[in-house]
Amino acid sequence: MSDPALFEMRDLTIETVRDGHRRRIVEGMSLSVRHGEIYGLVGESGSGKSISMMASVGLAAASLDITAGDVSFAGRRFAASDRRGLRSNLSHGVSLLFQNAKGALSPFLTTGAQVERVLAGRLPKSTCRREAIELFRVCGLNHADLADKYPHQISGGQAQRVAMACALATEPRLLIADEPTTALDVTTERELLRFLTRLCRERDLAIVLIAHNLSLVAEYCSGLTILHAGQIVERGPLASVFAEPLHPYTRGLIAAVPDVDAPHELEPLAGSVWGGRSDIERCRFSHRCPFAQPDCEAGVPALLPRAGHEVRCILYREDAT
Amino acid sequence: MNSPALSVRNLLRLFRNAAEPEAMPVGVRNVSLEIATGEVVGLIGESGCGKTTLGRCIVGLERPDSGEVVVGGTDFTALSGRDRRAFRRNVQVVFQKPETSLNPRMTVARFVGEALANFDVVPRGARRARLEMLAGLVGLNADALERYPHQLSGGERQRVAIMRALASEPQVIVLDEPTSALDVSVQAQVLRTLKALQAEVGTAMLFISHDVAVVRYVASRVLVMYLGVIVEEGPADAVFTAPSHPYTRALLAAAPRLKPSGDEAPPMHGELDLRAARSGECPVRPRCPLAHDRCREAPPMADLGDGHRAACWLADDLNKQSSEPTYREKTAS
Ligand SMILES: Nc1ncnc2c1ncn2[C@@H]1O[C@H](COP(=O)(O)OP(=O)(O)O)[C@@H](O)[C@H]1O
Ligand code: SF4
Ligand code: SF4
Ligand SMILES: [Mg+2]
C-alpha cells in the first residue's frame, strides 16, 4: 500500500432531523481507493452508501448537515462541508454513474448529442463528434445509428452504456457507480462490469462500486466496506473478508444470498437498519444481532483490526474470549 | 402427475412493432406448460423475452391471440363477462412493486377483507379470523392489519400483496419478479415465506424472475424462455446442474456469485436484439456462440429424460458434456 490513495474520505459525519430527532445518518465514514482499483461499498438500502458518496462530491441534499470529515482526491483536499470545493472535483476527474440511466439521460437529446455536450466541456467543438464516436465504440455501442436515437428508443443496457460514455467523456480517474447494473439482466450486467474492469486496467480508472448485491462485489472488487446504519461494521481486502467474515451483520448478509450452484436454506436478517434505540450510543446492530449482550449497548464498539481486516464488534475485542 | 392445477396450451400473444415492421413480432409464441398442485415452477429469461406477457395471459390481464389457459378443468380464455370475473378468484398475481397493487387509502385489513368479500370466501362473521390466519401464513404481525401501505416496509408490503393473492383461495398464483425490488435480507424473508406456503397451502405457483439463484431456491421445476419460446425445461436440479441449451448455460454462467465459479460457459453475443431473429430459424442463432449451418432450421425439443427437454440441435451433446464430473465439480465447488 505504498501507493498513495487516489481518493480518500476521512471521518465523514452527516446529521439530519428524522422523526423529530437529530440523527447521525453517517458517522465516522472513511474510505480509501487506490489508482485503478474497484472498491465495493455494501449494505442494505438506507444504510448510507449513496449519501456518503454523494456528499464526497458536494452533492448531498441541502437538508443534510455535514458536521465533520474531509475528502482528498488526486492531491487536493476539501472539508466535507465545502460542497462547492468538492463539486469542482466533478470537472477534475470524478464521474458518476447511476442505476437508472434512462431516467438520467435527457429525453430531448439524441444519445450522441448528450455525449458531445459533455465532451464540449473540455474539447474544441470541431473534435467532439469524432471523439463521441470513439467513446461509443469503447463502450460497446457499435450500431451505427445508435448515436441518432433518443433514450426512449434504446434498451436499458444500451442506455446504461450511453450513461457510461457520458461519464467517461470527462476522462475521469475515479468513477462512482451507484448500483449501475441493478436494473439490468445478468447477461448485460456481466458484460458491463467486464468492460469496466478492462477500463480500470487499461486506463488506470478507479471505481467505487456501490452495490446491495454482495455477489457482484465478490466478483469484481479488490476490497470492500460494509455499512450498517451509517457506520462501517467491517472492511478490508476482499479475499480476507470473504475468507473470514467476522461481523454478525456481514455473516447475516452472506447467509441471505441464494446460491445458484449449491442451494441452501436462507437465513433472513431480523429487523430493519434503523430500528432499535436511538437515545443511547450503542452498537447500531444490537437490535438485530443474535449475539447481542448488555455490553453491546454500553457504547459504540471500536473498529479494530482482526484476521487481516477490520471489524466493529465487541466479540472481537482484545479481551474477548 | 394427476390433473394439473394449471395447463397452458399453445398460448400465442404477439405484439408487432409498428416502427419496425420487418422485425419479428415479440411476445409469447405457442407456449405450453403445466403446473401441478403444490408445485412451484420457475420461469427465467432476459427482460423482453415474454415472461411477463405469459404471466399476464395466465391471470387474464391480457387476452391471448390463441391458445388455452385451463385452470382446474376450465378454459379461462373461453369465459367472458361475469363468469370471467368470478373465475378470477382461481388465478391471482403478485407483481414486483407491491405499491402498484395496494390501495394507499385502505388499511391492510380492509384491502384484504375486500377480496374475501368480493369472492365470498368466508361468511362475514368469520372474516376477521380468516384475516388473522392469512396474516400468520405470510408472516405478518396481526397489528399490521390496521396499518396503511405507507406505514409498512417494502418487505411487509410484498407480504400484503401475497396475502391478498391467497385470500381468494386460488389454484394458481403468478409471481412476477416478486423479490427483485427488495434487499437480500428482506428477499430471504419473503422467499422463505413462499416456501413455507407451498408446504402448507399447496397453491400452484409460477415464479417469474431474472435472478436464477432465487429461482433455484424456490422452484422444483424450471422453464427457460427466449424470444417468446421455452428453450429448455425440466426439474430444477437437472437444468441447473446439466444445462443443455447454450442460452441456459450462458444465463447461468452470467449470474454473479459469492464464490466465483470460474465456469466459463461461452456467453451469448451482444444483447437480446429483436431485429436479428428470423422466423423459421433457431431464435437464438444471432447470438449463439455455438451456431452452425443446421441452426438455420429451428431445432425440435430434444427429450433428455425425466421431463428435461431442450430445443437445440446440440442438446444431447451439451447434456452429456455438462453432466460430466468435471463440469459439475466446476459449477458446484
Ligand atoms: N402492450 C404491448 N404492446 C406492445 N409490445 C408489448 C406490449 N406488452 C409487451 N410488449 C413487448 O413484448 C415483449 C415481451 O415483453 P414482456 O412479456 O414484458 O417480457 P419480460 O417480462 O420477459 O421482460 C417485449 O419486447 C415488450 O416490449
Ligand atoms: S457488538 Fe454486540 S450487538 Fe453489535 S454486532 Fe457485536 S455482538 Fe452483535
Ligand atoms: S440450435 Fe444452433 S443456434 Fe440454436 S441454440 Fe442450438 S447451437 Fe445455438
Ligand atoms: Mg417482466
Automatic annotation (TrEMBL), chain A:
InterPro entries in UniProt: AAA+_ATPase, ABC_Ni/Peptide_Import, ABC_transporter-like_ATP-bd, ABC_transporter-like_CS, Oligopep_ABC_C, P-loop_NTPase
Keyword flag ATP-binding: yes
Membrane topology: Peripheral membrane protein
Cellular component annotations (GO), alphabetically ordered: plasma membrane
MF annotations from Gene Ontology: ATP binding; ATP hydrolysis activity
Compartment(s) where it occurs, according to its Swiss-Prot or TrEMBL record: Cell inner membrane
Family statement: Belongs to the ABC transporter superfamily.
NCBIfam families the UniProt entry points to: oligo_HPY
Protein name: Peptide/nickel transport system ATP-binding protein
Gene source species: Kaistia soli DSM 19436
UniProtKB/TrEMBL annotation, chain B:
A single GO molecular function term of this UniProt record: ATP hydrolysis activity
SMART domains, per the entry: AAA
BP terms from Gene Ontology: peptide transport; transmembrane transport
InterPro entries, A to Z: AAA+_ATPase, ABC_transp_ATP-bind, ABC_transporter-like_ATP-bd, Oligopep_ABC_C, P-loop_NTPase
Pfam family, any one: oligo_HPY
Gene Ontology cellular component annotations, sorted alphabetically: plasma membrane
Compartments (UniProt record): Cell inner membrane
Family annotation (Gene3D superfamilies): P-loop containing nucleotide triphosphate hydrolases
Domain spans labelled ABC transporter: 6-252
Protein topology in the membrane: Peripheral membrane protein
PROSITE patterns hit by this protein: ABC_TRANSPORTER_2 (PS50893)
Keywords noted in UniProt: ATP-binding, Nucleotide-binding, Transport
Superkingdom, taxonomy of origin: Bacteria
Homology family: Belongs to the ABC transporter superfamily.
PANTHER family on file: D,D-DIPEPTIDE TRANSPORT ATP-BINDING PROTEIN DDPF-RELATED, TRANSPORT ATP-BINDING PROTEIN
NCBIfam families for this protein: oligo_HPY
Record protein name field: Oligopeptide transport system ATP-binding protein
Organism lineage: Bacteria, Pseudomonadati, Pseudomonadota, Alphaproteobacteria, Hyphomicrobiales
